[in-house]
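Troubleshooting: if your tokenizer reports a length mismatch, compare your output against this known-good record of 395 residues.
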Amino acid sequence: MTRLSDIRFSTLDLAPIRDDGNPAQALHASLALAQHVERLGFERFWVAEHHNMDGIASSATAVLIGYLAGGTSRIRVGAGGVMLPNHSPLVIAEQFGTLEALYPGRIDLGLGRAPGADQFTARALRRDRLGSAEDFPSDVEELELLLGPRQEGQRVIAMPGVDSRVPIWLLGSSLFSAQLAAAKGQPYAFASHFAPRYVHEAIRLYRENFKPSAVLDKPYVMLGVPLLAADSDERAEYLATSVFQRILALIRGQSLVMRPPVRSMKDLWLPHEQEAVGSFLGMAVIGGPEKGPRAAGGDPGTDRGRRADLHLRLLRPGRPAPLVRDRRGLALKGMAHGWWAKAHPTRLEPILQEQALPATRGLHDAGHRHRTTPLSPWVRAGVRAGLHRPWIVVG
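Known-good structure output:
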């Protein structure tokens, strides 16, 4: 069983716009969050490409990454991810090659095969460009070529970009990218923060079919998990209603601006909508620092309490769910305690927890790390409690 101290934590952000705010405030808040988690020792800060959504300010992903990297000093900054069907591989190679030239050794490139928008917006993004999700494998291969060393007879190069070897991650919320990442020997990030039912099958496919490559000799997985920590269970559950409202608005096709928390969701959703939100956030965890140690029979102020198993309650909107035991949860909860709710009372951030997974061990087992990742100590801060969009990196 992997110890929490062996796991790196990171943050995924969508630069959410509040109902009483604007894009400038959202982007400045993202930088403040990146600086905050850098001080806590987080490993990465990723932003995701989305379009035509009034509550998300991270659409120009490469531009935002440059802003974030320029305002931080150590943390890796990247895309989680760029929706490759919307772009020419050459343009992405040049953008991220430029970022790597300006901030060497700190840039990640996560790639998704979905458009990150509705069909009308996707058409507006691509214009006359012929391309779709079906082209994703060949587009990834072209991008790898453009970011690698120049080949004999290669007529098109990315400048900057050529020989930059920006680390590429393949992202997915289904099984397709898991199989592609395995075949290419690339690290894989699964969006279990909104597609939890596929997580075990995706990880199994990736591990069983993984082929070692020049960049990775063992499977390397990142998982997204929504988690909200506050000073108390009651406070955390109250703050989580902002997230419930946002997912509910997504289901209804309404504005996605972040709304303030409410005391009760009872009058805001119908029973089937409550179930839909609960399914969307099926892997979410919510609570305060006292729950784990006391539930495990220890006092949080004692060694026994600090070592006790943490009982994490799976988030089910409007209805308590059974407690599940997680030996790594105590340190996670204790270290995450309080800061997120105080810093951003109406925002829930996804968390990234990274773990290298050998092909023959269980989901939480540790293995070899990504070769392009610095071998600094795995981050211990409570990242699992802090992203804008639910992400946890299982590493």
